[in-house]
User: What shape does this take?
Amino acid sequence: MTDISKLNRRSLMMGAGVAAAAYMTGCAQSSEATDGVDLSGTSILITGCSSGFGRLGAEHYARLGAKVFATMRNLPRPEAVELRQLAKKEKLDITVLEIDITKDDQVQAGVAKALKAAGGKLDVLINNAGMSIAGPIEAQDMEATQLIFDTNLYGAQRMAKAVLPSMRAAKSGYIFNVTSQLGRVIIPGFGQYSPTKFALEAMSEQMAYEIAPHGIDVTIIQPGGYPTKIWSNQNAPSAALKARLTDDILNAYPQFTQGMGKREAGGGEADPMDIPRAIAAAIARPQGTRPLRIALHPVAKPQEAINKVSAQMQLAVLGGSPMGDIVKGVLD
Assistant: This one.
């Protein structure tokens, strides 16, 4: 049997991408350039800034003039020291704050500090923090399941609930939720990762309809495979889960359990800066003209075909309803 740990998501997605090539050729969306983008006067709070898209984004938006609140958990830590030193060296407006998005008290305290420093309102929230745990669904015990849902889904909800009152009061704001290609396409052996990202896709779209009348936009970022630390960071929780599994489960799914906790680097050679650049370009667009979803990968974006069909069905079901104008405004 094939060991799922030896497959990388990019190669799997490229296979799916071939199947969707006819659609993608006509309307694939590439990373937007940010040449000339000015984010001066824009306050941005980002979760998960110790590495990956969060860390790259914190630097990028600050270099474009934004006031950035870069949050991460477990302070003090070397990544926070490094980011503060970089900000001081380059004279970037970056404030590092501690927020563990699974903890209500830290979310409330961290957002309160950011709001105070930003004059009472945050312009942009980027829900970037996330995690992965490997293995088949039957192997996912409730400890692992609760942890990943608490991080990938409930954490985004906690953050949105913390910033929305001030955005509603200001009648403006912008929320990004980072999902995944795997929030639309299923690959076996990725545990509860796809279920959490599917749920975040649904929650984000529902919220987009609900808060549009308040002048607040929502954009779902759907990255494909990128070389970030999500690949290596899954090893500790995956190994801990594997240690709790019985031989019956381990032997029933050898192709999915052999490599748990031993993941090598993945994500191919795509440029992770695609994500911060696309987010910055979206922020620069006028309120009400921003896309609900942005699919990002230089090669394979099979989720775009699903995005298209989903939008068509939403319009077919709700386009003629009392919610029709709002739904059309979000999807058009």
